[in-house]
Each structure stands twice: as C-alpha cells, then as structure tokens.
Design brief:
Layout: E1 14-18, E2 23-30, E3 33-39, E4 43-48, H1 54-57, E5 64-71, E6 75-76, H2 80-89, E7 97-107, E8 118-128, E9 131-145, E10 148-158, E11 168-169, E12 174-175, E13 179-192
Length: 195
Amino acid sequence: MLLPLWSGAQSLPGELTIANGGRIWIEGTAGPVDFSCHAQELSGQGQINSTTNPQSAVKEDGEVQISVSLPVHSLDCGKRAMNNDMYKALKAEQHPSITYQLLEATLDKKAATPNSWMPIITRGIMNIAGVSDTTEVEVKGKVIDNNHFQVKGSKALNMDTYDIKPPSKMFGLIRADKKLDLHFNVTVSLQSQNK
C-alpha cells in the first residue's frame, strides 16, 4: 500500500511481506458499551516486478500483487462471550478469514510533505463473511529505510455491506451498532529476488 513512496535503487523483482508486530483492530459500539477487538494473527504477501519505479508499478497492469489475510478466530475482544458473538456474526465457520487485495495505490502529491507521513489513496477488494466489496481507503505511509515502510489508517465499515447481522444479547435488547471502524498499523518489508 506504500509502494508509491518507495524510491530505493533496487531494480530486481521484489517480494513483499508484512513484518511481525503489525496491528489490526476493530472498534464498535453495543448499546452503552464500546468494544475493541484486536487481531492476534496477520499475514500478507505480494510481488512487485520492479523496485526501481514502484509509482508506475502500482497501476492495474498486473505488475504488483498484494494480499492480506486475517483469520477471524484470531480476533480477541477481551471476553469469551463477545468473541463467540463476533465469530458467529462474521460466519467464521464458513468463511474463516477476512481478506484484502490491493488493486491500486496512488500518492496524493498535493497533500504530501517531505520527511513526514504521506497520504496515499488505495483501492482494493475487501472480503468479509464471504462478501466482497471494492473499497477506497486513504492511508498514511512513511519510509523507514530502503527495505521497510510503515502504513497506517482506518476505514469505516457497515455490516450491511457484507450481509452481517449485528450480534445481540438479552432477546435483542442490546444490539451492536452496524457501523464498525477498522484500524491498521503495519510495516511492509521488501526483499529483491534474483531471476
């Protein structure tokens, strides 16, 4: 997602992976209570044909492939009952992972400033509970070094988009709000490959 920022001198094909320590969490509201569910497991990988000019490589021409997978059962809301409600709502047995596939990433040059977090407009396919939706997300990215960059941001989601029934307790008297906020803060690593 931060490929437009990459300006390293490498010219070989590259392999992209999400480094350990990445954070993804979901925040929402159920009645008078706010909740937060943190992912305990996250994986992501991709390919880029040339690391010399990633700006041109992120267009929809097949030169960049990035996908992220989040196991539903790795989400921890802090309480077992809440976890079970979340897994059931997300149809974890039938669809065990939430996935995202990047289609396009473009640096917002008008809003970018040197040596700081830079805004990137991304478009990709989010699949939750077996339903896919093409969505746009504005993220912020920062180059750490020639082989690592960090990306963070958030996306407001609506359960209706993914045909998710909000979890409810006490005969429906307490029902989770349909709106969720997905947050992420991850570091992506690049490793050149020999042909």
